[in-house]
Automatic annotation (TrEMBL):
Pfam families: Polysacc_synt. The keyword Cell membrane applies. This is Polysaccharide biosynthesis protein. GO terms for cellular component: plasma membrane. It comes from Secundilactobacillus odoratitofui DSM 19909 = JCM 15043.
Amino acid sequence: MTEMSNRDGAQNVTNDSKDQMVKGSAWMTAGSIFSRILGAIYIIPWGIWFGSYFFQGNALYGKGYNIYSFFLIAAIAGIPSAIAKQVAHYNAINEYGVGFRLYKHGFVLAALTGIVCAGILFFGAPLFDGGDARVIPVLHSLAWAVLIIPVMSLSRGFFQGYQQMAPSAISQFVEQLARVLYMLGSAFIIMRVLHGSWITAVSQSTFAACIGAIAGILTLVWYYLKNRSTFDALVAGSDNQIVVPAKQLYQEILQQALPFIVLGAGITIFQLIDQYTFFNFMKGTGITSMRTLNDLFAMFSVNANKLIMITVSLSSALAITAVPLLSEAYTRGDKRDISQQLTNAMLLFEFVMIPSALGMAAIAHPLNILFYGTSHKDLATAVLAFSSFVSIMLGLFSVTSAIMQGVSQNKRAVRYFAVGTIVKLALQWPCIHYMGVFGPLVATTIGFIVANYLILRWLNQAFGVDFQGIAKKTNGILGFSIAMCIIANLVVEVSSSLFGHFMAVDSRMGSLLIVVLAVGIAGYLYVYMVLHTRLADTVIGERTARLRRLLRIK
């Protein structure tokens, strides 16, 4: 009887964990995807207003943002994720008061790292321009965001430690909305009203990150004040059996945080490798025109990257959700729950990432024209389609590295990432030399394949990943995704042929119609197949029954 009771209890814990993961993933995915979509859609009017300077402006924007992203991650120092992990740990043992003290000390650290990193970025901008002086004013404008965002990210981590994903998701969306509105407003005034410098317009567009951060912080403050009584009650009901000195709290934060810098900056580090090697390596192939090189750089590192990061953000949302949940299971020493959550995380990742990546590759031609116009359209389409497949490895690394952090294997994850980075560096020159603009993408893919393989191998050895169970569902997801991809491609071809009789299909309006049609038909097909076959039920649980009734699918 006791054994049965224990088994039922373990099953309930597993189901609760899965339910929490799906719920948290839904919020984080929604916030992340809407923010990414906003961050991509703005490029259409922004590009129109920049006119002939569009690709040059986008390349400059990308150069500044890659450097900024690294400094921002260094300033944040992984403290938000570390806070989420540690707050979840103390909450699991009913020590809410310690979690609050942890947040207060983390706040001081976040403010200090923000000041230091913003100062280095602002005053050291000439050292990071890579020989392009136009990058300097862009870095100056971005330094203000580095000053503010660490504190905002820390507060998001605090909410995530309580499994409250809504404040993080909504503040993320508000931040992006304010940023985009400022970007578009400043670009229109400078380029179309004042007919000013495109470099000034790019600098103001990057300063928008600071405006967005302020809006995001205000949203989090509102959420805290709204739920203050709940937090106070939890702190008042703490066991108060643990007294953690301030020095130990700082040590805990830094021990957890420092590896997050490397892992959190993983994709950015690879992009910086591309930024500082691509131009010199490409000159070795005979292309010396800086305008041509900037156009090529914009194609793979900025344009395609902006779109594929919409799909990668889905998996990043899952990764963020997994960290505090895995931390709780790891604290309890529940290997069975850890193994189950590993399986859940991997399947949730595949369920959204594989069809998203294949679908984007199928509609790459009209999607590229919709966002970036007809300049270099054939090459840009090929780069976007290839980047879509690369995004699967980027997303997988976001998930696997977060899982390693959740089970306190930060240093090991850093070592595995370092191996992948060495592979990327070793392959960078030959790949660029023989494959041109596709070279950096190939080197990136292989580098992340190596890192992901090493992480998954260790997780399997330590906790036992149900690869056989995952493989069965993966075959279904992959099969349905390929069918969806074929249908999407057919819709693009047929609609292009039909619409071509009465409108320019290579226009933005024509491309928009084709994209909406292809996504609508192919997307519904995928949803129908996973719901009809009950594959979705095994991945995201019983909630699919309601969706089935809503769509009238048997």
